[in-house]
Amino acid sequence: MGKISKELETKVRLIFRSYPKAKEFHFTSDGQAFSLESDAKNHAKTLKAKEVTKITRQMVVSGNFELDTTVYDEKVVQETSAGNEFQASGAKGEKGLNDQIGKAAEDEERKTLIEKFTELEGKKPAHNIGTDKLKAAVEELEKAAKEAAEKADKDSDSEKGSDDQKDTENQKPE
């Protein structure tokens, strides 16, 4: 039996708030949450610390996190068809907090890429373009814009040079 860290408590509260029908989650030592104990056990086997901690909604509501941590290092456990009410309600699975954070960062990157594309191309990209293709398109547009700017500088320099030459031709000594 033990207590959880403030960081884990915050994560636990967020997960239970995100999944109001879930009665319990099983947390592995790396902080991943699973609605099925068998999934948590299988994931724990890939970690150095092979611990799985069951946290119930009642613990979250009461604030009493008396934990029962189990170490799993046995054969792979078979997944059940509906491990709890959350799974039985038709949900295929939940995304971990790390997935949500990663998605937010990816969304921010995508937003920036769309802004750059719109600025360079003068129109928005197709709504269903993948982030990788969008990134490649922006790089291509930036490269083309840079080449066009260099060409314009070169042309203006050569034009300036030819104007200087004409000026010297028109100024014949008397």
Describe this structure in words.
With 174 residues, the protein is an alpha+beta fold. It has 2 domains: 6-94, no CATH class; 113-170. It contains 6 helices and 4 strands, in the order H-E-E-H-E-H-E-H-H-H. The longest helix has 40 residues, at 131-170. The chain is rod-shaped and about 95 Å long.
What topology does this entry show?
Blueprint: H1 6-18, E1 24-28, E2 33-34, H2 37-44, E3 51-56, H3 57-62, E4 68-71, H4 85-88, H5 97-121, H6 131-170
Antiparallel strand pairs: 1-2, 1-3, 3-4
Helix pairs in contact: 5-6
Keywords:
single chain, 174 residues, alpha+beta, 4-stranded antiparallel sheet, 6 helices, 55% helix, 10% strand
Number of domains: 2
Major sheet details: 4 strands, antiparallel
Cα-atom radius of gyration: 30 Å
**Care to count the β-strands?**
4
Helical element count? Answer: 6
Structural class by SSE content: alpha+beta
Mean pLDDT: 75
Low-confidence stretches: 74-94
Biggest sheet strand order reads 2-1-3-4
Q: Shape, please?
A: rod-shaped
What sequence of helices (H) and strands (E) makes up the elements? HEEHEHEHHH
Strand content: 5-15%
The span between the termini is 106 Å
Query: In percent, how helical is the residue content?
Result: 55-70%
Task: Describe the structure in brief.
It comes from Belliella calami. This protein is an alpha+beta fold.
